[in-house]
Give the backbone structure.
Amino acid sequence: MDSLTQIVLGAGVGVAVLGRRLGPRRAAIAGGLLGTLPDLDVLVRFDDPVDAFIGHRGFSHSLLVQAAVTPLLGEGMVRFIKVLRQQRPPVYLAVYLCLATHALLDGLTIYGTKLLWPLSMEPYAVGSVFIIDALYTLPLLVATIWALCLPKWSRRMGTVITAALVLSTAYQAWCLAAQQIVTARAGEMLEQAGVSAEKILAIPTPFNSYLWRVIVLDSERYLNLYIPVLGGREQITVYEHPRGRALATCLDGNPNLDKLAWFSRGYFRLDLHRGLRGDEVVFSDLRMGLTPNYAFRFAIARHDAGGSQAIPPRHLGGPRGTWADVEWLLANMGHDPVMRLAEAKAWLRTADLSTTARSQAAVC
């Protein structure tokens, strides 16, 4: 999640556990600092942008590592804050909860979080919440601001912080339920169309949890299904795109493709783009960003008539969206299934879902 959300979540946890002992203001500051601490792994230097991409949310987000460092951080607070010197157990609890809730919340996004590093390098990525969601953040933000204004504990402060934590947690429960509802609707629609998908993944569209994008991997194509939680089939829009799997045959042994394919769990596409020195093979992670403006795109190979050759990977920037995307998002959230201009050429009638993309010839 975004840094502000992690700060106010940590502040809320800090106030809930230590507010009576330390005072709401100081507890909120301490919790906010602890809550953002795991993201300091961005300071770690990696060899290339691919390693940086798959290495983020690693050791500092591990629940095991956080348990190991809790006594160090907790003891520092106990020794340097006088009122906490006889409060070791609640201090340790507050430290661990501030760190762990950060990691668990990140695990609900689609990026991926290595919660059990180093025992498991598998990133957990539920994908039930967008990385910025005001409906989750707002109750915690209000409670944090309230706490920062109060040097001494009060019963009302306890009510406010409890309500904020309950509301934010309930919102995450709603997101998980909405994801299951949309996944079931997509599966039913695909079954009726006779589409046997390899994989499907439901993730929320930007800044909300009502309109979802369901990515469907189906042979040589992938589908973007935009589905609101409520409403009928007439509110669903579908777009069909090529996966570029033929290019993968040219990249056997390319270590960056192997790393990225693993990290993306197979949800990627390959394209040829004119690069700095001729055509380049570009990898796009389908899970983050809207087609074609994916947030994580990497040039990983040079391509010509003789085949493909690995190159030092480059992270490719580009536009993230336009005002037309905002209008499209609001319209579809309001059950007006207008066409998304950025994908207009890929629009597909729901009646044509069963049409399978033709196999692409090898390009090596």
